[in-house]
Each structure stands twice: as structure tokens, then as C-alpha cells.
Amino acid sequence: MNAHRTWPLAIAGLLAVNVLAAVILAVLANRGAAQVIPDYYAKATHYDDELARSTASRALGWQVDVTLVGGRIDASVRDADGAPIDAARVRVTGYQRAHAAERMDVELIATARGHYGGVMSGRTGWYDLEASVETGGAHFTRRVVAEAR
């Protein structure tokens, strides 16, 4: 084979490999639905409301810890002094990062003093959640990132 044939074949081969790689990447990138943060536009237009809620929650000084294990969601709720908060309405909303279109909204029930629990999907992975606690006219929210195992 001479140089007049080798270079055009090498260039054509490289172009074919690039086209094949682009097709493979396009197919892999379009698996499932688009993964966009749910309601991102509504969140952006109501950012001042979010700041007001966050400021009010910080002023309360409450603490909410969320754990996700084996298809269960558990929350521990304490006031600013570390005492458990009983008889509260606790709700956890959010989504798993790999499946953002599948929203989760679970109202938890009291399981012990300051502890609340509920059932969620059995998917493992990282979740972006918002825990909301209401009792005695006070409202507390906290954003939480948790790993379901």
C-alpha cells in the first residue's frame, strides 16, 4: 500500500470512529427522562420567601436529623435546648438525585419522644430532602441531603 491510499483510509477510519463514539454517547446520555431539579423556576421566583422561612427556622434553633435505611425514613426532632419535640406534624419531601422526576412526600408519624417515622421507596442512593415540622403555631424547615442504604 502506498502513501496515496494510506492517508485517506486513516482519515476516513478516524472520522468513522468519531461518529461511532458520538452515537454511543448520545444514546447513553438520553437514557430515561431529563434530570432537572424539580420546580427550579418556581423556587427561583420565590427565593425571597425561602429566605424568610430559613431565617424564621434559624431563629427557632430546632434540629432535625433524617436517616434513610431499608425503605424507612426516620426523623429526630429537638428544640433549641436539645429536648425532644412531641406532638408535631413532620413531613419530608424531596427526590432521589438519580430519579429527580419521582417526587417523594411522606408525612411521618410519632414512634417515640421526638422521633418520627414512615415508609418510602426502597431505592438506595442520595436524596435531596426538605424536612418540615409544625407544632404550636411554629413552623420549621430544613434542607437535608441523606443517603438511603
Attribute tags:
single chain, 149 residues, alpha+beta, Immunoglobulin-like, 2 domains, seven-stranded antiparallel sheet, 3 helices, 32% helix, 42% strand, elongated
Question: Please, could you describe this protein's structure?
Answer:
This protein folds into two domains: 1-31; 40-148, Sandwich (Immunoglobulin-like). A seven-stranded antiparallel β-sheet has the order 1-2-5-4-3-6-7. It is 32% helix and 42% strand. The model has no long low-confidence stretch (mean pLDDT 90). The protein is elongated. The chain is an alpha+beta fold.
Q: What is the CATH level 1 assignment of the largest domain?
A: Mainly Beta
> What kind of assembly state do the chains in view correspond to?
single chain
Distance between the termini: 60 Å
How much of the sequence is in beta strands? 35-45%
Let me know the CATH homologous superfamily of the largest domain.
Immunoglobulins
The spatial strand order of the largest sheet comes to 1-2-5-4-3-6-7
Can you tell me the number of structural domains?
A: 2
The ordered string of helix (H) and strand (E) elements is HHHEEEEEEE
Proportion in helices: 25-40%
Number of helices: 3
Please state the CA-atom Rg, rounded to the nearest Å.
Answer: 25 Å
CATH topology of the largest domain: Immunoglobulin-like
Low-confidence region ranges: none
CATH architecture assignment of the largest domain: Sandwich
Shape, per Cα inertia axes = elongated
Q: Compute the average pLDDT.
A: 90
